[in-house]
Amino acid sequence: MSPPNTHTTKTKTESERKRSPDSRDRASDERAMVADGTLPPLIAAQLNHLLSHSSHSLKVDQIWSGCKNAQFSDRFTLLVPFCLDYVKWDVVYNAQCPWVAPDVIFAAEDEGFYPFFVAGEGQANGQREKSSLEDWNCKDPARLMLLVHELRDLYKSYQMKRVGELDDERLKFEISTVLSREGIEVCMISGSERLEDVKFSVPLLDMNLNKLVHGCPWRHQQMIYLQVVFPISRKYTSSSPPRIKLVSSSELKALLSVEDVKLPIWLDGMCMAEYLPAVEDILKAQIVEAIAAIGARRRFIEALASQFGRPLEADSVFCRKATVLAASGVFTFLVHISLSTQFPKQQPVLVLQSSQHFNSQGTPVMSPPLMDYPWSPRWETSQMVERIYEFLAEECLSFKKYCNDSQFQQ
C-alpha cells in the first residue's frame, strides 16, 4: 500500500403532550420547513424569528391547517424545552386573519395552568394580568418569541408552585436550600406504575463552555445539568436517595460525554446543597482533560500526513474525524478515521470505502468498523500512525476481495 500522489392559552384535550429531546439540533431544517410557503408570510416571519433568535432550543414538531383544502397552514406544534424535557404547545393562528394574535393550547395535565389569569386575595373574581398579547402587532416578527418566552417563565413559576404545595418535608427542605442557584427548574412527573415524582434540573459550572473551544460552531450556550428525581412521600426518609444523572445538550458530546462521568455516591442524609459541589469539582477536572484531549487528537491528525499524505477532510474544531486517501496498486480507497473523546485510551475506529466498487443502490462499498489492530495509548503519535499504516497495508487486500465479492453477488 502506498499514499496517493495528491495534496489536495387553553388546555389540550390529548393525553400525551411531552417528549424527550432528540439527539440533534433541527433548527435549520425547521426554518427551511417554515420558509417553504406553507404559512402566511406574517405568521412565517414570526415563527422564523422565534427559531432563529430564541435563547431556548425550540423545535417545531408539525405544521398543519385548521381547514381542509386551505391555501395556507395556520397552526403548528412547538416543542418548548423545560426541566430537561419538552412540553408540547399548539400555537393556533387564523390564516384568514393572520394579523390576529394566536391562541396557545397547553397539555391536558397542565389544566390548572392559566398564565394570564390569577385570583386576587379576597376577590370573588379573577384578575387578568397584562401580557404580551396586549396590543398585538402582527408586523413585529419578535412578538411570538416574546409571547413564548413569557409563557415559559410563567410555566416555570406554575410548576414551582405545584411542587411547593406538596405535603413532603424533604422536598420543602431541598427547595429551600437550592433555590438560590440561578437557573434551577422543577416539575412534577407521572410514572406508569408509581405515584408522581418531582424532578429538579440544576445547571452546573459557572463557566462559559462555548469559549473553551476555539471556533466551536455551537449556536446555543452549552450547559451541563444534574437531573435529580425525588419520589413523593409524606415524611422525610434519609435512606432513600434520589435518582440522579448528568445531562447535557447533544452538541457538547463532541467535547465531553457526560454519560461517562462517574458521579459521587449520594450518602445517607445528604441533600442537594451538599452534593452539588462534589459533582462540580469532578466535572471541572473532566473538562480540563477534554480540552487537553483535543490537542492530542489534533497532533494525531497532523501526523497522518507522514504516511498517508494530507487528509482529504478533517474536523478542525474538535478533531474527531479525518479522511485520508490510500492505494494498493490500482486499487484506491478512502480511510475514514473516527476518534472518540477517550482518545488515546480508546483507539481510532477505521472504516474503508472503495472508490471503484458500488452496490446496487450506487453507494460505495464500505468495510465494517475496524478496531482489531495493534494499539497502545503510550506510543508516540508517529508510531500510532505508522502501526495503522502497516495494518492497512495488509487489510486492504482483504477489503479488495470483500469489494469484488460484493459486486459478484449482485
Automatic annotation (TrEMBL):
Basic and acidic residues composition bias: residue spans: 11-31
Keyword S-adenosyl-L-methionine: no
Compartment(s) of residence: Cytoplasm; Nucleus
Organism: Stephania yunnanensis
Domain of life (superkingdom): Eukaryota
Any single GO BP term: cell division
Record family assignment: Belongs to the BABAM2 family.
GO cellular component terms, A-Z: BRISC complex; cytoplasm
Keyword Cytoplasm recorded: yes
Primary site of residence: cytoplasm
Protein's recorded name: BRISC and BRCA1-A complex member 2
The entry's keywords: Apoptosis, Cell cycle, Cell division, Chromatin regulator, Cytoplasm, DNA damage, DNA repair, Mitosis, Nucleus, Repeat, Ubl conjugation pathway
Ranges where the record places region Disordered: 1-31
